[in-house]
Design goal:
about 0% strand, single chain, mainly alpha, about 300 residues, 12 helices
Length: about 300
């Protein structure tokens, strides 16, 4: 069941990335990110209110558990990690082709494995090493494809923002499993709905502060903000993708390494959108890069199961 949910989350993420790219075209980043967190908060606010004031949602998937600071301090940290990743990712995606951003984001499972190797001393098997090698090769090939569009991977700070967003995304994935895992398994054992509901609200307050302190005073000197209905779809598809994701992690036997790999399959959906809707260039060479990334994910999957 958790595997099916992981694939569903991947498809929803692909639509999320595509709507995000469309909304960011020639638009101000900070207001869009603030509205994203605001709409996501409004989606989950009714569940919080109903859960805290009635027993109508008790025992359902949408019930939001209560908790004090001992619980919310973990959620605040998650909000900071995710929002930092989003800020870097939004700015990078605005200035780069989706066919470049997608494959880079798809290397997050490799970053998780390398982090486990360096930080926790875990050992990788031959399949996992092969997956890491393919991801590295695909990254260098992607840089060659980027040069055809005037993108220098070594000097382009937008590329480094996407890489930074991917790194923070990998950290967030590991942290999610820690939050969802039971205390018996070394985790915190938080309810999935309290995490998703409240981390959106905390992010909304953080982005509201950035909007008022950083963007609003300088709004006339930066890219102007214009409303686009894709902004609403960003929040809808992200909230749905995260709900399915958190639910899959809460199920017995769920493996964060495999769920993370499957979710990166969202690159297939966003790549198709980039080709059909955005008419991006050099698709033939990028298809090879994408195929190597996906092949690396398959190797990681086999290695994780063996």
């Amino acid at each position: 069941m958790w595997l099916i949910l992981a694939f569903l989350s991947a498809a929803l993420l692909g639509f999320y990335d595509s709507f995000k790219k469309k909304a960011l075209e020639g638009n101000a980043v900070i207001p869009i990110l603030f509205l994203n967190t605001l709409f996501s908060s409004l989606i989950f606010l009714p569940f919080i209110i109903v859960s805290y004031t009635t027993d109508a949602l008790d025992g359902s998937l949408f019930h939001v558990a209560s908790g004090g600071w001992e619980t919310h301090k973990y959620i605040v940290l998650k909000s900071f990690i995710v929002l930092s990743s989003w800020i870097l990712g939004y700015f990078g995606m605005k200035h780069l082709p989706l066919t470049i951003v997608g494959p880079i984001n798809a290397t997050r499972p490799v970053m998780v494995l390398v982090g486990a190797l360096l930080i926790f001393g875990e050992r990788l098997n031959i399949w996992q090493w092969l997956g890491v090698a393919l991801a590295v090769i695909s990254f260098f090939m992607l840089s060659r494809s980027g040069k055809k569009e005037g993108i220098d991977f070594k000097r382009d700070h937008w590329i480094w923002m996407i890489v930074g967003a991917a790194l923070l995304g990998a950290v967030s994935g590991l942290y999610d499993k820690y939050l969802m895992a039971s205390p018996a398994d070394g985790g915190v054992g938080l309810d999935k709905m309290i995490v998703q509901s409240w981390y959106n609200i905390y992010q909304c307050f953080m982005m509201g502060a950035m909007l008022l302190l950083l963007w609003w005073p300088n709004r006339k000197n930066t890219t102007p903000f214009r409303w686009h209905w894709c902004i609403v779809f960003i929040s809808i598809f992200l909230s749905a993708a995260d709900f399915v994701y958190f639910y899959s992690l809460s199920l017995p036997g769920a493996m964060i390494s495999i769920v993370s790999m499957i979710r990166r399959g969202s690159v297939v959906v966003s790549f198709l959108f980039a080709a059909l809707a955005f008419h991006e260039k050099n698709l033939k060479s990028k298809v090879v890069d994408l195929a190597l990334v996906l092949l690396g994910m398959v190797c990681l999957y086999i290695g994780s199961r063996s």
